[in-house]
Write a structure and sequence with these properties.
Elements: H1 2-17, H2 31-46, H3 57-79, H4 99-114, H5 124-155
Helix pairs in contact: 2-3, 2-4, 3-5, 4-5
Length: about 160
């Protein structure tokens, strides 16, 4: 009888602790946080101030690559057993000014989160493709920042 009570108590404790491990089960716990940061980075690039004019070609590439990375990393997260409906909070609240700089900071954090060792061979191709998209978005965003600086210097 005591054995059954002990087993029941252990099972109850294990079940109660599962929500606390929402980002820990599976082998790569950083996908959900990276996905949240990617969504915020895309929002930062897409939501321009009216005085910023139309979205540049570089900025459109950044947005497209971020969305491609989101698709690949969602697939990797799903294969890794992550609950895709769960939304991690973004790393930090970012002001609207300096939106490209904020996107670059977030993309660097995403790269750091996702570039960890992946033990699941089914997830690796999606992880690597996602990283390639993040790298292209990061490089293009940095190029766009340089273009904005160059344009601003010419106006002075």
């Amino acid at each position: 009888m005591k054995k059954k009570s002990l087993i029941a108590a252990l099972a109850l404790m294990a079940a109660a602790s599962l929500p606390a491990l929402a980002d820990e089960y599976g082998r790569h716990p950083f996908y959900l946080h990276a996905l949240s940061d990617l969504q915020t980075a895309a929002w930062k690039v897409e939501h321009r101030r009216p005085e910023d004019g139309q979205i540049s070609r570089d900025e459109q590439v950044v947005v497209d690559e971020i969305h491609a990375a989101i698709g690949d990393l969602q697939r990797a997260a799903w294969l890794d057993g992550k609950p895709l409906e769960w939304r991690e909070p973004t790393d930090t609240w970012l002001p609207r000014d300096g939106r490209l700089h904020a996107a670059v900071d977030l993309l660097r954090k995403v790269r750091s989160d996702v570039a960890r060792e992946e033990d699941d061979p089914r997830s690796r191709p999606f992880q690597q493709r996602g990283l390639a998209h993040v790298d292209l978005a990061l490089n293009t965003a940095q190029h766009a920042i340089g273009d904005v600086r160059h344009h601003d210097m010419r106006r002075e």
